[in-house]
Each structure stands twice: as structure tokens, then as C-alpha cells.
Amino acid sequence: MARPLSDEKRLAILGASITAIASSGLSASTATIARSAGVSEGTIFTYFKNKNCLLNSVELHIKNDLFDYINNDMRRTTDEEVWLRWFWNKYIEWGANSPEKYRAMRCLSVSDVLTDEVRHEVRKKFLKFDEIIASGKQNGILREQPNEFIYGITDSLATMTIEIICKFPSKLDLYRDLGWKAFLLAISSAR
After folding, report:
1. Buried (b) or exposed (e) across 97-132, using 16+ Cβ within 10 A?
2. CATH homologous superfamily of 1-48
3. Which of 85, 166, 182, 186 would you label with 133, given CA atoms 20 to 30 Å apart?
4. 163, 148 contact by CB (below 8 A)
5. Does the structure show a pLDDT above 60 at 191?
6. Where are the domains of the chain?
7. What is the Cα–Cα distance from 34 to 178, expressed in whole angstroms?
8. Alpha carbon distance 149, 137 (integer Å)
């Protein structure tokens, strides 16, 4: 009879994968990941069918962590600007406090290893963002532009903001606020 899989080992593999991807990109070897996780390389493939399956699981693991962080103590408001500011602050804080996860997430997001199913599952987690964007457009608060473009603006400005904060952590509030102002100018209707 096969031994049950260990959540502890699975989490160790995911954590080691995040570290490896953050430092070496997607070319990080499973041997390096296994060593860092304290398991044999074969153990990785007991938990994950292949490296692509592992990478997709890492993406879900990171996005679940981000989703939980953002939704912890979530704002209940219908004011689009207030909600977006709160979302921005939480997203930037998460990235600044979890730089390895953020770097790994960036590597994964620009790769072609993520399956459509994983991308769809991640998108479903962030439907509230889409609802706020739609409401803001309908109310004339946000500029009429494709959601994909707004996602790109969010991603680009958040990346720049988080990278600067990681270099100057004592100025988190300053750079988070400057990033917010740039983000708001890029998506809001004329002010």
C-alpha cells in the first residue's frame, strides 16, 4: 500500500521551487529544488507529474497566498477609487514583504508554461477586481480601455513600485503612494 503524501513535503517542495525560480528563473533544476527542500529528486515527481505541473502548482500556491493577503480584512465598499487604493496598497505590501514570491510570480506570468486551466483559476480568484473596473467604467470614474490593458498597467506599475521599495524599504509609504498616483492617473477618466 502506498504511503500517503505529506503536506509538509509538498509545501517544502513548493517553497524551494519559489526560491529557485526567484533566483534562477524557470531554468532552475529539479535537483536544486529537491536539495533545498530536503527531499530526493524523485520525490518531487511523486508529488508533481512533471516540472510543468510543478510550475503550475507554484503559480497557484503564490496566487493563493496573494489572494489571501489581499482578502484578509477586505474592504467592503462600492466606491471604486477607495477599493482600488486599498487593493493597490495590499498588493504592493505583499510584494514588498514577499520579494521571492513576487519575483517567482513575475517569471511564471511571462512564461508559456502556465496552462489555460491555471490561468482561468487564477483569474476567477480576482473577479472582484474585474467587477470594480467594470463598475468604474460604467460610472465614468475609470477611463474606457480594455481590461487587458488595465491588467498590464497594474502589473507594470506594481512591479516598478515593488522593485524600488525592495531597494529602499524605509520609503515603502512614499513609493507605494507615488505608484498609486501614477496608477490612478493611468486608469481614471480625466480629472
Report:
1. ebeebbbbbbbbeeeebbeeebeeebeebbeebeeb
2. Homeodomain-like (1.10.10.60)
3. 166
4. no
5. no
6. 1-48, 52-187
7. 40
8. 14
Residues near 97 by beta carbon (within 8 Å), at least 6 away in sequence = none
* Cell numbers for 70: 489581499
CA–CA gap between residue 11 and residue 131 (Å, rounded): 32
Whole-prediction pTM value? 0.90
Q: Read off the pLDDT of residues 112-127 as tens digits, 9 standing for 90 and up.
A: 999 999 999 999 998 9
**Chain segment 135-186, per-residue pLDDT in tens:** 999 999 999 999 999 999 999 999 999 999 999 999 999 999 999 999 999 9
Task: Note the CATH number of domain 52-187.
Answer: 1.10.357.10
Amino acid 105: pLDDT: 96
Residue 142 is given by DSSP the state: B
Beta bridge partners of 188: 142
Phi then psi for residue 188, to 5 deg, are -85, 155
| Spatial distance between the Cα atoms of 59 and 167, rounded to a whole number of angstroms | 25
